[in-house]
Design goal:
- 30% of the residues lie in helices and 23% in strands.
- The chain has 168 residues and is α+β, with helices and mostly antiparallel strands.
- The chain is globular and about 40 Å long.
- It starts with 16 loop residues before the first strand and ends in a 22-residue tail after the last helix.
C-alpha cells in the first residue's frame, strides 16, 4: 500500500453530493463503470454496457444507481441490483459495482458512498446486501469489513448463457 495523499481535504472541500441517478447520468455512469470493469479485467462491449445501464434506469424494479458528484462533476457510480434470496428471506440486494475515480480515492469518499448505498438499500426494505471483491484487493476488503460485511466460505462461479442480452 502506498502513502497516497488525499486529493480532497474533507474539512475544507465542498461536500460531495450522492444522488439517485437519472437518465441524464447515463453517459457518466457508462464512462465510470467501463473504467471499473477494465480495472477488474472484465471485457464488455460499450454498447452492451450502455444498454444494460439504460435497462436499469428505465426499469427501477431491476435495481438502482447512485452517482457521486464532486464540484459539479460525476466522479463515482454505484449499481445495486435487486434479488430474491432465500438465504436472506426474500427481497435483498447485490452491490454489483461501486466505483470512485482513482484521483478521488483515499479521501473518505468511498466510505461516504458505501454508507449512502447501505442507507438506500435499507430504505428500500432489503434484508441484506451481498457483494464480491477481487481476492487480492485487501484495501477494499478492509473497508467492507469495517462496515459490517462478513466473509462467507464460498467461491463464486459463473457460466455465460446464450439468453437475451440487455440490448435485445
Amino acid at each position: 500500500m502506498t502513502d497516497a495523499k488525499p486529493v480532497r481535504d474533507a474539512r475544507t472541500a465542498p461536500p460531495a453530493r450522492i444522488v439517485p441517478a437519472t437518465a441524464s447520468h447515463l453517459g457518466d455512469i457508462v464512462r465510470l463503470l467501463a473504467l471499473q470493469l477494465h480495472e477488474h479485467r472484465v471485457a464488455i462491449e460499450h454498447a452492451r454496457l450502455e444498454a444494460a445501464v439504460r435497462g436499469v434506469l428505465e426499469d427501477p424494479s431491476r435495481g438502482f444507481f447512485l452517482v457521486l458528484e464532486l464540484d459539479g462533476r460525476c466522479v463515482g457510480a454505484a449499481y445495486v441490483s435487486f434479488i430474491w434470496a432465500l438465504e436472506h428471506g426474500g427481497h435483498s440486494a447485490w452491490l454489483d459495482e461501486i466505483y470512485v475515480e482513482p484521483a478521488q480515492r483515499a479521501a473518505g469518499l468511498g466510505t461516504e458512498f458505501l454508507r449512502a448505498v447501505l442507507a438506500e438499500c435499507e430504505a428500500r426494505g432489503c434484508a441484506a446486501l451481498d457483494l464480491e471483491i477481487d481476492a487480492e484487493h485487501e484495501r477494499v476488503r478492509s473497508l467492507y469489513r469495517r462496515h459490517g460485511f462478513e466473509e462467507l466460505p464460498r467461491r463464486r462461479l459463473v457460466r455465460p448463457l446464450r439468453g437475451r442480452s440487455a440490448n435485445e
